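Reopening this one. Same input as before:
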Amino acid sequence: MKEVRLMKGNEAIAEAAIRCGVDGYFGYPITPQSEIMETLMLLRPWETTGMVVLQAESEIASINMVYGGAGCGKKVMTTSSSPGVSLMQEGLTYLAGAELPCVVVNVVRGGPGLGTIQPAQSDYFQSTKGGGHGDYNLIVLAPSSVQEMADFVELAFDLAFKYRNPAMILTDGMIGQMMEKVEMKPFKPRWTNEEIEQLSPWSTTGKSAARERNIITSVELDPLAFETFNKKLQAKYRKMEQEEVRFETFECDDAEYLLVAYGSSARICQKSVQLLRAKGIKAGLLRPITLFPFPTKQIAELAGQVKGILSVELSAGQMVEDVRLAVNGKVKVEHYGRMGGMVHSPEEVVEALEKKIIGG
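Same output, byte for byte:
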């Protein structure tokens, strides 16, 4: 029998973490994601699965605790919101440089600065272009429902361990705070130490007589050796682009105009497509699910079919740059967005498409 619950997006993240066998959560409270830690504290998983839940003294401390747990081959994660994720950037580039799998959740709020606790999508650049120093990428998943908030926790861990790379769930305060029904997955046991040694032979589980010692580090002082390592990372990212692109289309088969939107904006744009079609305008929607790797090829293919594309975001225009790169000048690409915690309506998106693309 299916287990269906009504819960917030933030609560779904916490429940899914326990159910998929996470070993440790290290975080620091900040709105609009505080319910993730609060739910974990309420559920007390250390009494049932043995999962560690710890409020660190800061976001900087929490990401470095994640580094330590990930180095041991454990499933570890942290969550925060925009200013807190900014504080984690040094730790994230260390994790990428050491090729350590982990999951980070960013429930985005409006910025810059401390900004507002209202939803925004203005952390797209930070999330998809590295965020910290050096040539690296995170795997970035963008849920658009509370169900996906739950489902993407396990998916993020699967991808993180497959590629030995940090993965991020990039969501926002709207999806974090809204309530929807969620079909819960069954509990998975945490990995045993023996399973970790088998699944992650690189992990620092203690040297045995059968192998050399494992060293976890992101420093290499030999420039030639470090260039070779960086080429290895780039090859890994290219493999992700070949094998891990995820997206969803809506009414695209005969579309003459295309909306591109992710997360909460995509929910709104789905209604916009229906309104446009009711007016006789053949519109479609492409929703990127992975923001890195980005569905460049799929958008390029649709660019050969449509007359124009509107990138809809809760920002001043960030993803639109990747859309334009994908289109490569084939058709007109414009941006429409709201900022500072303001959320566009379906009717506003319709008006923007008619003004910027159809009548532009």
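So the earlier flakiness isn't reproducible anymore. For the record, Residues 21 and 75 are 7 Å apart (CA to CA).
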